[in-house]
Amino acid sequence: MTIFPILIFLIVLGVLASFFVVKQQSAALIERFGKFQSTRQAGLQMKIPFVDRVAGRVSLKVQQLDVLVETKTKDDVFVRLKVSVQYQISKATVYDAFYRLENSHDQITSYVFDTIRAEVPKMKLDDVFERKDDVAIAIKRELSQAMKEYGYVIIKALVTDIDPAQEVKIAMNRINASEREKVAAQASASAHGIRPRGEPAPPASASQVMLRLVSYTACPSNRDCKSAVVQTLKPRKTPPLRTLKKFIFMMSSFSF
Description:
Elements: H1 3-18, E1 19-22, E2 26-32, E3 35-40, E4 43-46, E5 52-59, E6 63-72, E7 78-89, H2 94-99, H3 104-119, H4 125-130, H5 132-147, E8 152-164, H6 166-191, H7 206-218, H8 223-233, H9 240-252
Antiparallel strand pairs: 1-4, 2-3, 2-5, 6-7, 7-8
């Protein structure tokens, strides 16, 4: 009579040990006496008690790994890049992801370091900012080829941050401020009618050209008249109204 309760307990324990649950977006790997037996997907699953065991569980969700890499550009500027790699394990490659690769994070990090230190030293600092998408594409291409045999799918690689050395950022801010001050000075000079040194004079309007031609032909034999008219062809800073009054006064002083 004392053996019967023990048998009942062992049977109940065996039944409970036969069932297990696999969560959504994950997979479980079953081993029998230490050898891989099968892969189980989400839901209520059954195994042989005391013979089969759950060797491990693998997440099928999209995961993200952030990697910080410090390298040098072509113009000898040290810069730190932050790369975010999004990857996933597919259902068909759970075995490879679990048994063939011990630490996926270290493997991905190594390939990111290798790719960045091969691509960025070919570029100047300004090109790194402008072509960061090209760097991200190169990282994804290298990772996809390398991690495919281990059952990992690289979804996307993003260069999320580019951080030069502090003294470089200060120098860049000074250059930008100087360029903005130069543009502001030019705009202020144009608003006040001041022509910068070396800039050609604006062309005369059609009405000014006709007026000057008429005045020139009106005094063909008078050298002083011609000289005065030619002076009006030169660009002046005087307003148009004053120029017209001066021209009328000049024409009234000559007899034709």
